[in-house]
Amino acid sequence: MTVPHFSCLVADKQHTEESMDVIAPFDRHLIATVERANAAMIEQALSQAHQLFTQRHSWLPLTERIQILERVATLMTERVEELALEAAREGGKPLIDSRVEAHRAIDGIRLCIDTLRTEQGHVIPMRSTSSAANRIAFTQKEPIGVVVAVSAFNHPLNLIVHQVAAAVAVGCPVIVKPASDTPLSCLRLVTLFHEAGLPVAWCQALIISDNALATKLVADSRVAFLSFIGSARVGWYLRSQLAQGTRCSLEHGGVAPVIVAKDADLAIAIPALVKGGFYHAGQVCVSVQRIFADCNIVDALTSELVKQASALVVGDPTLANTEVGPLIRPQEVDRVDSWVQEAIQAGAKLMCGGKRISAFCYEPTVLLNPPQTAKVSQEEVFGPVVCVYAYEDIDEAIRLANDLPVAFQAAVFTQNIDTALHVYEYMQASAVMVNDHTAFRVDGMPFAGLKHSGLGVGGIPYTMHDMQIEKMLVIKSKAIM
């Protein structure tokens, strides 16, 4: 069987002789090969994008951008099952969840259109002082400039929509570097933009496996905005390398905390915690990781959590009944296992899981009361591991939840509005979910990491806002009273 080969998507380029393999995380079979960008190709992409932006007469009109986005949504809808299946194959997210992601990505395209149609400029108040007499002022939005989007592996379709479709919608030339583990979904999606009528130079895709070359792309002075989704270590480093004037947004991870109060409805809480903790094998930046449960209900919660976690179907992500797929690389399985064993040796009680199923999959694991100094309590596991901690004082639980250099989304399960509002008030988080898991998200809501967890606000309308400037016009006329 012939293995398909995918080229980088760059306007007016010469192909390179360099390529890399794309490997299925479930069984490590070869899915495809992809062309690998070199320095000359990066320069070509930057030159093309910068030239487009500096030639204002070549900007795409708003009506044309909307028409392109509408055609992309139609094309994605026609191919939604293929997009979902191939995303599951290369990224390891089970097909049932990859289908949801594909439909979310289509909805994200439509959200770009809706935002363009409803969010424009503002009227600026004038004439309130004598110095501002005879004037009116308003703003209109314009693209900020060339966007570079560096994406992550865990949502290979929807993240590209959040970063790339947002840039196309507002009229920015965009260059996207997908994760090396999952480049194919990105290339398929960018190809659909070109199929829908977007000139190639407006949306280019580069596969870059060399960190120095990736930094060269990000740090170029022609880049106006960096959209980064990935690890904090890489994100903060890239921010330090940006040219003067380059704006950025960074989305990293967290160690998501959940408070389960004494009065929580466990029939609601536990299925949500199982989904939020083991969805995509825990490889989600707001995955449920630390559950602080009132000591009066911790045994009942843990028992049912173990029962439901142990019943999850782990295996091939392309099969319809699989609920938990592989980790993205075998070394991640090794790392997760080492963290679990460290916690057990330090005093955590293993309630279920705690071992490899294969070189690629790890059992859904529940740990009870690991030490606060253990890696599973301090750092993002990014694997199918959930920790439960018993508490007597809810304020002490909140203190422990807050006592990390990361903060993103959090949750509380309770039937008491005062308890819910108390946790909301004192929890260090950009969002607090009440009676839902920490990984809940719809694409129009703000999505922001605090402290080490990120910079700026994600979510399609917010990303579109960041990729634009508001240009003001002030008119003075004696006809203005």
Q: In words, what does this structure look like?
A:
With 481 residues, this protein is an alpha/beta fold. The chain folds into two domains: 5-252 and 453-472, Aldehyde Dehydrogenase, Chain A, domain 1 (3-Layer(aba) Sandwich), CATH 3.40.605.10; 256-434, 3-Layer(aba) Sandwich (Aldehyde Dehydrogenase, Chain A, domain 2). It has helices at residues 39-54, 62-78, 80-91, 95-118, 158-170, 183-195, 211-219, 232-241, 266-278, 298-310, 330-345, 375-378, 394-402, 417-426, 460-466, and strands spanning 5-6, 19-23, 30-35, 123-124, 135-143, 146-150, 174-177, 203-205, 223-229, 247-251, 256-260, 288-294, 349-352, 365-368, 385-391, 406-407, 409-413, 431-434, 450-451, 454-455, 468-476. The longest helix is centred in the N-terminal third of the chain and has 24 residues, at 95-118. The mean pLDDT is 97.
CATH architectural designation of the largest domain: 3-Layer(aba) Sandwich
Query: Over the alpha carbons, how many angstroms does the gyration radius reach?
Result: 24 Å
Shape: globular
- How far apart the termini lie comes to 76 Å
The tally of domains stands at: 2
* Spans where pLDDT lies below 50 across 5 or more residues: none
| Percentage of residues in helical conformation | 25-40%
**How would you name the oligomeric state of the polypeptide chains in this document?**
single chain
Q: Which structural class do you get from the secondary structure elements?
A: alpha/beta
In round numbers, the mean pLDDT is 97
Largest sheet: 7 strands, mixed
CATH superfamily of the largest domain: Aldehyde Dehydrogenase, Chain A, domain 1
CATH topology type of the largest domain: Aldehyde Dehydrogenase, Chain A, domain 1
Beta-strand content bin: 15-25%
How many helix segments? 15
CATH class of the largest domain: Alpha Beta
Number of strands: 21
What is the spatial order of strands in the main beta sheet? Answer: 13-14-15-12-11-17-18
